[in-house]
Every structure is written in structure tokens, then in C-alpha cells.
Amino acid sequence: MNDQNTHTTSVYNILILGPTQSGKSTFIENLRKYVDPDYVPDRMGTGNCSHTTQVTSRPLTTTLPLYGLFNENNNLIHLPSTRDQAIYYEHIVNDRNRSTRPINVDGSRQYQFQIFDTPGLNDTQGNDVLNIAKIFSTLHNSGVTHFNLVIITDSHYVPLYASQQQAFKTYFKLFDDLKSRITILHTHVDDMKRLPGMDKDFDEKLDGRSDFFKKITGKQVPTMRIDCDPTKTAAIQVALRMNVIQNVLKMAIVQEPLVLSKTSVSKLQSMNAAGKIVCEKYQAKLDSASKASMALDKLQSLAITVAVMLEEVKDLEKNISQHDTDDEIQLDQVRYEGHVGMFGGTGSTIDTKVFFIPQDMTGFLGKLGDRADNAFGLMEERTLAFPKQAYTLSAVHKNTELVTIIEEEGGAGKNYWKARFKRQYSRDAHFHVTFCTTKRIRHQKDIMTWRAKVNTQKDKIAEYQRELGILQHASGAGDERDPGYAADVRKAELIDQMSKYQKILNYIKSKTLPLQDFLELANSNSIRGANPVDDADAFEKFLRRKFNLV
Is the pTM of this model over 0.85? Predict the structure, then answer.
């Protein structure tokens, strides 16, 4: 064999699977004979009971020699196939002059194999899934990390009953990843039946069994035939048997290793039935959590809105409190002072909004040096007016000396003031009027607007708070007394829940399982297949552990 076609590994692992009495253990006995020509295979009995009750392993080391057929002169002679019936029969007849032994080549590479024998598929009360799981659990717990070849043994002595067919279908259905590494080994192939006149339909029968495997796998699976009967000791029989074994071992070397940690198991119908029940349950949970999350988003947004509105109401009520009072505020004032000097008098006024009628304010303003009686002559009258306002005056404070108010209109309670006054004396005089109102009067319109807005906001707040209570119930974010209770914590919980629910749904909808999950499910009786409801309960418990759901 060309080593360039082999895959580098320290040990080549071969797993042997098959139904009860399919020749697994007998084949392994012949493997030992191949490695050690002096080994005497154990005669496994009549085949009426299974001899392997648990997974066993056996190491083998070999250079993969070919077994040759030698004549009485120890010369290598042609080794026929069993299809060369006449020559085959001749070697059987002349067996006393024939011998066989491995043809070893110096310097050949040593190959290490680990052979794993397993219990029959239908040993465990027909529960093939559980039996498969036990096999792979034992392998996993033993530290087996990969396989190079999987041999499924098939004995034509054992009819393909429905239970046998189901066992094979289960294997191929579960381990789709193994299909490319599987070889069907037809055991108990009685070479004597191939002799002339013994069994004309023999090949057709084996071909029919091969067609069965092709049908359930969907592909052409490599097949080999071997007569494992250790009682058949003719040199030609032993040589042919050993060389079939050599070809089997060669297949393990050229196969790419299948890493168990990366192996997926296809779901069976029973798994999908249980998964459908759990899927419906967790889809409902996801929908509920999604609605709660949306309600929580709305709750948080609405809670912020309510908080802002409450602050607005607080500010408005503060404004109302500050301005709805009788505190007096000064609006405007007018002042006139007249001084009489040696040659007359001067006068001045102070105001910006109050004006005289019919003259404007500039006509009342005197300049230094002007005679007072020129600006406001002795015994003259003037009219002073405070224009109409949008609000009423609360008071008009007047302080006069040597100036007489003849007539007055408006004032407190009115929105204007008007007075006619007269200067009756030439001595120093002054006239001072201050116009006032209260904060309540001055901001009456604002206060009305503020109060209307407060009432509107309070009505909206009450409506929003009722909605908050509904949203709290929908989102589970606290009681009605505290709309914002644990909102952030609840949001984090919902996000975590939705993430896990979605992962569970994706996991359930996947067509495959990681091998380790399959083993846990099978060994915990979660995929028995008898009752989907019971399987669903067990499957859900597994999922809750896997995805850390409380």
C-alpha cells in the first residue's frame, strides 16, 4: 500500500456494529488470526445467542501482509477467488498439499488498530436507539475521539425480518455522517455453497441484501463478503478469509477520520414528534415574551412621558402659586416738581408712558432756566391720562403739593386712569402719581391658561397611568403603585428569555443533534418513542438544562 494515500493518525479505530448473531465477534476472532497466524479462533457456538453483551475493544498491530497459498514444495501458487469454482474445489480436494501464511516484507510500516466490538442492535428489548446510545456512550466515556471505519455486519443466515430491517434503518437514519465511512460486511458466507451444484442462487441472494442497504442509505455502500467459519481450515479458505480482512483494514487507513465531537445525529420520527410538541410550547412562550417586551418598551416610553408631564404640572402650579397673589407691582409713575427762583421757576417731569392731553409729554417737560409759569402757568389746568390696559389697576397712589386735582376718572378696579389738575400757587410744588396692580390681576390671563393646561395634563396623566397599569400587567414589570418598578431588570430578563426561547426553537427545528446531546437524551429515556407526550416532557427537561432555563 502506498502510504501517501493514508490519513495520518496514531491509531486507526474501527467500529463493528450489527444485529445480534450477525458475526461481529466471530469476525474479530478472525482479525486476531490475521495478525497472529498461530492464534486459534474461538468457536463462537451455534449462533443461537449473542456472545457480546457490552462494548469491548482490542488493539491490533500489523504490517498488513497478504496471505499467500503455497504448494507442497513451498512455492507460491496462484490464489483464486471463490468465483473460480473449479480451481477452488481443486484446492479443497488437495488441501493436504497446500499451506498458507502471511507474506511479510522487511521494513514494512506497522499500523495500529483499535477494534471495537458491540452488542447486537436488537439486544435491548428491541430498543435500537437506546442500544446505539449505550454503545456510543461507552465509547465516548472511554475517550474514543474518532473512527476511521464503521463495519456493519450482516449474516445471510439471519433473515431480514422487520426487526432486523428496522435496526439497520435506525443506524443509517441516525448516523448520516457515518455513511461515507460505512462498509457492509456479509459474514457467514459459506464458500462451499459456491461449489458446482451447491447453491445456484447464492450470489443473487447476497446481491439482494446489498440492494436493501443501498435502498435505505440512498447510495451505493461498499460491501465485502467473508466466510468467518473457524471450522473451515483448508489453506485456500484461510487465505481467502485473511485477505478479505487485509482489504477491510486497508479501507480504515484510507478513510478520513470521523471526529466524534463534530458528529451529528439525524433526528428520528419519534424525536420530531416530541420536538413538535415542545416547539409549539416554546413558540407560545416566545410570542408571549415578545409581547411583554413590546409592552415594556411602551411602558418605559409612557413612564417617561408621564414623568415629563408631572414636571410640567409642577412648574405650572408653581407659577400659579407665585402669581395668583395680591402682591402689588408698580407699573408706571409720573412726577412733576416746580421750583420758584428769583426770576421765576423751573419744572421737570419723570415718565415714559404717561402723557398729557392735549399736549404730549414734551410739552410738559421744562428745561433748566425756563420760567415755570411758561411751562405750566399759574392757575392753568392740565389733563393727565394712563392709557387703557389689558388688565385693571389695583391702586393709583397720588402725592401732591400746591397742585389740585380737579377731576379724576378710572383708577382702582379700572383698566385706565385720567385726571385734570391745576396749579394754584407760584411756590414750590410737586405732583407724583404711581400706577399699581397686583400679580393676580397682572397675570390673570396667564393664570387662566396655566390652570387650563394643568387640568388637561392631569386628565392625560390619569389616562396614561391607567394604561401603565395595563402595560405593567402585560410586561410583568412591577405593580400599579410603581410603574417603573424593575423595568430595566425586567427588560434584561425578557431579552434573555427571548434569546433562549429562539435558540430552543432553532435547536428543535434542526434536523440533526450533536452526538453528545443524542447520548444524553437517549440515556435519560427522553426519546423512547412510545408516547410523544412523555418524550416531550423529558425532552423539555433536557432543553431547560441545556439552555439554563430556571
Answer: no
What is the grid cell recorded at 263?
458528529
Break the chain into its structural domains and give their ranges.
Answer: 3-263, 273-321+451-546, 328-442
Q: 469 near 477, Cβ under 8 Å?
A: no
pLDDT at 12: 96
Q: How many residues does the chain have?
A: 550
Pairing type for strands 264-266 and 512-514 reads antiparallel
Superfamily of domain 3-263: P-loop containing nucleotide triphosphate hydrolases (3.40.50.300)
DSSP string, 29-63: HHHHHHH-TT-------SSSS----S-EEEEEEE-
Per-10-residue mean pLDDT, the chain, length 550: 50 90 89 93 55 84 95 87 72 88 91 92 64 85 91 83 79 79 87 62 76 81 87 90 95 90 85 91 94 89 92 95 90 69 42 38 33 54 83 88 87 90 74 87 90 95 90 71 63 90 94 89 74 87 88
Residue 59 preceded by cis peptide, ω within 30: no
Residue 242 backbone dihedrals phi, psi, to 5 degrees: -65, -35
User: DSSP labels for 470-518?
Assistant: HHHHHHT---TT-TTTTHHHHHHHHHHHHHHHHHHHHHHHSSEEEHHHH
Q: Which residues of 435-455 are buried (b: 16+ CB within 10 A; e: fewer)?
A: bbbbbbbbbbeebeebeeebe
Distance of alpha carbon 496 from alpha carbon 550, whole angstroms: 12
Cβ-contact 61, 115 below 8 angstroms: no
Q: Judge residue 533's burial from the number of C-beta atoms within 10 Å of its C-beta, 0-12 exposed, 13-18 middle, 19 or more buried.
A: exposed
φ, ψ of residue 30 in degrees (nearest 5): -75, -30
What b/e sequence results for 465-503 when a residue is b if at least 16 CB atoms lie within 10 Å of its CB, and e otherwise?
Answer: eeebeebbebbebbeeeebbeebeebbebbeebbebbee
d(C-alpha 41, C-alpha 38), whole Å: 9
All cell numbers assigned to 153: 455486519
